[in-house]
Amino acid sequence: MRNYTKVLAWLLVLVASVAGTSAYELTTKDNKVITDLETALFKVFDVRGEKIIWRVLDRIDTIQAKSNNERIVALLEKLEADIDAKYTVGTYALASWPTPILYDSDFKAQFGWKDGNSLNFDDYWEIDAVEHVAVSGTVFEVIKKVSDDVYQVTTKEYPVTNDTFVHGSFLTQVQREKHNDRVKNLPSEEKMIEMLRSIVGVDYVWGWNAPEWIPKLLEVFPPKSEISETKKSQWKLTWVDCSGLLYWISNGNTPRNTSWLVKHGERLDIAWKTLEEITPMLKPLDVIVWRGHMLIVLDEENTVESAVSYTDKSLTPWVQIRKIEDSLWEVMSKRTPVSNYWDVEWAQFVVMRWYK
Predict the structure, then answer these.
(1) CA within 13 Å, CB half, 242
(2) Distance, CA of 93 to CA of 173 (rounded, Å)
């Protein structure tokens, strides 16, 4: 008991030395000691912030490494776990699976909804809270731990101003040290064309980019009772939106939203040109894009897109191949071809060559 008290006292003195507070007399009752210590530490942390938290955690690690007393180690592990649970600022994690990123921290309200067997769809068969699906290996910075299983995070691969959340079941290696950035291996042109052809017919849903499915969603958020195969497919986010289609085939090497894609790559000089002039300029994987939608040039004759109609709900939204002339005619009947997206003030579009 004397060694136990001595080590905890040493810890508190060291904490005091780095945190700018004075030590106090420790009791020998485990829970009381930990509670008192945490109370003192948390007050200091709230004032001094992230830097002091990591200095204290590092000191705990040092004491644990030097101690051969199992009781001391167990108590310090509890202390460290409590600190990590309350303060996760500056920690990092990796996506171990394709990982849904939500604007809402209540995952069960999206996957299960009111009856435990439904998804929280809106009128356009979209789950509004699902913003994006991060590819495996994405590095997250943890802002805070919202609950036992949910983290508020940011990632430079998908920079947004809104609060975004991921579920801990999709993460691995939650740690203080920053992970190396994900290695973005870009598939060959032939492979990406093959991938585009392989998912023709897959349904459109805004914000989704995982046409290969996320089976882990059924494991983490199991339905209350048996559901149909169609609903299982929906539960696994087996759909894709327009820019998600490009993000998927490029292995996350392209911006996720059209508002970023209008600036990504080399702009073709299409300003004020006719359909007949623009068509022969296009090459496979060129992107016909404006803020809100995009199409991908598949080959010399066709485009591919994941599209939905917001005016005619009877139209089936899906990934479809169309003739270049038909696609361009439809686009140019409503929009003006420009070489710089901000050249004119009315409806416009650009063609970006991102793959060389």
Answers:
(1) 21
(2) 5
DSSP code at position 298? -
Residue with tokens 């500056």: 90
Q: Across the 356 residues of the chain, what is the mean pLDDT of every consecutive 10-residue run?
A: 48 51 46 68 67 68 68 69 64 89 94 92 81 90 84 89 92 77 90 93 72 82 93 85 91 89 94 95 96 94 82 62 94 91 73 92
> Structure pTM?
0.72
Residue 102 dihedral angles phi and psi, to the nearest 5°: -115, 155
Number of H helices, E strands in the chain: 12, 16
The token pair that represents 306 in the structure block = 């994941």
CA distance 16 to 3: 20
> In angstroms, rounded to a whole number, what is the distance separating the alpha carbons of residues 306 and 320?
6
Which tokens in the block code for residue 131?
């913003």
CB 33 within 8 A of CB 8: yes
User: Is the torsion defined by CA of 7, 27, 18, 76 positive or negative?
Assistant: positive
For 115, phi and psi rounded to 5 degrees? -105, 0
